[in-house]
Amino acid sequence: MLGMVKNSLLSTVEAWPFRLLSKGEKDQVSYEERACEGGKFAAVELVGKPFDEASKEGAVKLLKYVGGSNDKGLGMGMTAPVSITAFPSEDGSFQQKVKVSLRIPSQFQANPPCPTDESIKIEEREGMTIYSTQFGGYAKEADYVSYAAKLKAALGSDAAYRKDFYLCNGYDPPMKPYGRRNEVWFVKE
Predict the structure, then answer these.
(1) Which of 102, 141, 178, 179 has a beta carbon 3.0–4.6 Å from 62's, enabling a disulfide?
(2) Which strands make up the sheet holding 12-15, listed edge to edge?
């Protein structure tokens, strides 16, 4: 499962490459520390909409891009996860601003097609080390907030990570009814 995420509905999906650094568990919360590769990402920022609505809209735009809505008309295939950068408010809920992103498939990393949707930007990102916890189901804002709180508690005060944002990740297409995988990632400082 670490190399490629197999999905019976859409054949194979290329996973974001990473190296597992460590695993931990505290208070029944399992988590991992991973070194994730950098690379080129397609990203779209949405402001002024609730998290669930904005993340869905952003994901649809990116799916159209990798599906062929680009200057070369190329269907590139899917990568996972779809990653949503969330910006928590003081009360833990999310601000009405998200960045939805998708790693460009490996074979297109060197020269990705240009999106026909001008709201989609191609970004070069550095690799990063993250703390991650996983959960199932159809994830909504409340689920990500809940699992972020669990991950924060499990890591304790010794772990140094960015507090101004975190990543909400979905690995499965909406039509996959069970065995779903979602993760919350904190970016290590």
Answers:
(1) 102
(2) 4-6, 12-15, 79-80
